[in-house]
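Objective 1b: paired records.
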Amino acid sequence: MAAETRVSRWYFGGLASCGAACCTHPLDLLKVHLQTQQEVKLRMTGMALRVVRAHGVLALYSGLSASLLRQMTYSLTRFAIYESLRDRLAEGSQGALPFYKKVLLGAVGGFTGGFVGTPADMVNVRMQNDVKLPSSQRRNYAHALDGLYRVARAEGLRKLFSGGSMASSRGALVTVGQLSCYDQAKQFVLGTGYFSDNIFTHFVASSIAGGCATFLCQPLDVLKTRLMNAKGEYRGVLHCAVETAKLGPLAFYKGLFPAGLRLVPHTVLTFVFLEQLRKHFGLRVPS
């Protein structure tokens, strides 16, 4: 009998990302709070204590429904595009794809996914930031779908895609950092001959990918968060960048540590979940 391997189904990336989001959502929330400070007043630990003391532990999961909706739009799209195109191109070539092709596929998948996920991402940022606003200024969305409906009704459908260009650009960068670098790191680790295709290899490769993604996307992530949480104070991306630059060059890396502390574990968990889904539920194909 011919040996068989398993490949991911097109929706596994979305499911794996949802699983990771459930674990790392508090870190994502703290990152948003830190990035939307006008002045650096609190670090991550201080911000966490402020949120818990003022609103309770469950406040760390504010906006979870929007985060899950984002993963099922943004991450599902980028994984589906990247893996489908990668596997199709690999069928017509001998050996692994060169890294530059993986980068191109990651950029295309991430850009598309970033645009598709912009509405859920905007609602996610607003719901996460709501707990630190005065009661009179809170939007109080009941859940992600309520947020989408209320934004569309009160601010127009176009507002749902506010910051879409920034989200798409960030999506391209983070997908290159995560998916392309993960594939390349996994290929390199397995190529040493000292490792097999197991959970330890997945952990090592995804840790490298998470670090690459954090480095690439942090400046755009700060601008995206500010644009999505804005109430009309920015005229566009360039104006937002100029105003952010007035706070100093390090303002573009505000929240870098919590961003990495969130993105690296999120990346690791996503790929660990993805590999387990592939191993147990993937499509069987001849080796």
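Objective 1b, second protein:
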Amino acid sequence: MSIQTTEATTTEKVETVRYTADVIALTDDNHVLLIKRGWDPHKGAWALPGGHVDAGETSRDAAARELREETGVDFDPSHLWQLGIFDDPNRDPRGRYITAAYIAHVPNNTTATPGDDAVEARWFHINQLPDLAFDHAAIINAATARG
């Protein structure tokens, strides 16, 4: 008895996927913390604090680290609430970036100081946001829709 096999030809597109974490820091008086980006892409644009998840790091820990590095706001990672995953293939001009977005409820009048790649950190009322980089407006909308 012989077994006959056929080889199927498939074309598979391989892409590099990068993993990031972003933070929607919200106050009870409806302000969200944004940073002004210090480098490209979107240099000079307002964005949520966030960045790459480092090797051996969870996205939750990365979110807390990025919030601290970019704004000086120290937040316990265990108190971050995961909003969701944002993975539109076109969300970042550098290529495929998937982000885990977290919500941090912080006290009103929390002081923010820019650091790392942020040239400015500022609180904005959620009804008076500037134009935002990437898909950060959609992320904030998803966060505020949850209440």
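Residues 59-71 form the longest helix (13 residues). Helices lie at 59-71, 136-145.
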